[in-house]
Amino acid sequence: MYIMEGLKGKNPRNLGRKEWSISQARSRFTELVRSAAREPQPIYNRHRLVGVVVDGEMFEAFMRWREEQTRPTLSSALDQLRQICEEEDYRLVLPDRVDRDNPFGRS
């Protein structure tokens, strides 16, 4: 409990991580880039997060993830198909079900 009292007003996830102001980031850009190779470097403007510098591999992984998130899901494709069927007044006619002989069901 005593540890947390000293953290008032601070985000526990940013402990030990350098936080940069825009002017610090501009004047110490090389250090910012080197630090970003180890971990993401948040940049703040008046205590508001405005950007983060990350290494190239992390950025590329993020872009791949983002691209995957924009792909249509099976659910959205089925919703679209359902809508097309309604617009075209299409009805899927299914034959009546017929019970088949089940050799495993006999005693």
Which key terms come to mind for this protein?
disordered N terminus, 5 helices, 12% strand, YefM-like fold, 107 residues, 3 strands, three-stranded mixed beta sheet, alpha+beta
How are the elements arranged and paired?
Elements: H1 2-5, E1 20-21, H2 22-27, H3 29-36, E2 41-45, E3 48-53, H4 56-70, H5 74-87
Task: Describe this protein's structure.
With 107 residues, the protein is an alpha+beta fold. The chain has a domain of 74 residues: YefM-like domain (YefM-like fold). Helices cover 44% and strands 12% of the residues. The chain contains 5 helices and 3 strands; from the N terminus they run αβααββαα. Strand 2 and strand 3 form a beta hairpin. The radius of gyration is 28 Å and the shape is elongated. The N terminus is likely disordered.
